[in-house]
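This section describes the prediction task in plain terms. A model, or a person checking by hand, is given the sequence of a single protein chain and must write out its three-dimensional structure as a string of C-alpha cells. No templates, partner chains or ligands are provided. The sample shown here is typical of the held-out split.
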Amino acid sequence: MQANQKMKPNEIAALLRVSNEAAEKEIGSGKLPAPRSGSEQLILHNDFEQFLRIQGTRAKGETPNDVQVPVVFSAAKPFDHQWPEKEDHPKAPEHFDTAYTATVVTSYGSKTVLIGFSDSKRAGHRRRSVVFIDGRPMVRFRAADDFDRSGLMVSVIKTGDRKYLRAKDSIPIEYSNFRIEPYRKHVHEAHISQNAAVVCAKDDLQTMAAHALVTANQDRVDTPFDGGWRELL
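The expected answer:
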C-alpha cells in the first residue's frame, strides 16, 4: 500500500475488523485523522499506520469504550433466566446461584450490568457465567478444563461484522487490552471451537463486563446468541 494512498472509513473498519460505527468513533475523537475531500472523509495510509502504532502501545490498564473505572459491583440476589425455546423442546429456566450487579457509565450512556454464575447442565457440569447488559444476555464465559486449579474462564468473541474471531485473526482494537488466546487451549472436547477467546479469572468481573460492553457497543440488531451461534456451554 502506498504511503499517500487514501482510504474510506468503511475500508478502515474492514481492516480493523470492527463496525463502521467503531471506526467513525475513532475518527470523531480525533485519534484517526480523516480530512474531508468534498463530501467524503479520507484517511492517509501514513496516518492509519501511526494510529495502529499508538493503539499498540496503549497502557495495559486502559479500559475499552471509555468506561469509568473502577466499576463497583455489589452482590445481587440469585435469579432465574428463561432462554428461548425451540418448538416441542421446552426448557426449564436456568438458575444463577451467584450474581453481581453494577451501573457502568460509558461514552454511549449508563448501562446496568448483571453477571450470573451457574453450573452447566451438560456433561461435566462446568461452571459458567452469563453477562447481561440492560437485561440482554451478551456474552457467556465457560470454565477451563483446569478450572479447579487455575480458576480461569473463557468466552468466544464475535466481531462487528457478525463473524467469530478466529485464533489466527488480528485482534480488534477493542480487545487490545484483553488476554486473548485460542479457545481450545483451555477447553478440550470433541468439535470444540477453533475461535479466539477472552480469558480471565473466575472473579474478574471487570473483564467479563468489559467484554459484554464491547459486544453491546457493536450495535447489532440480533443478540449474540441468535443467528446460528453454536451452544458452547
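For orientation: Confidence is low (pLDDT under 50) at residues 56-65, 219-233.
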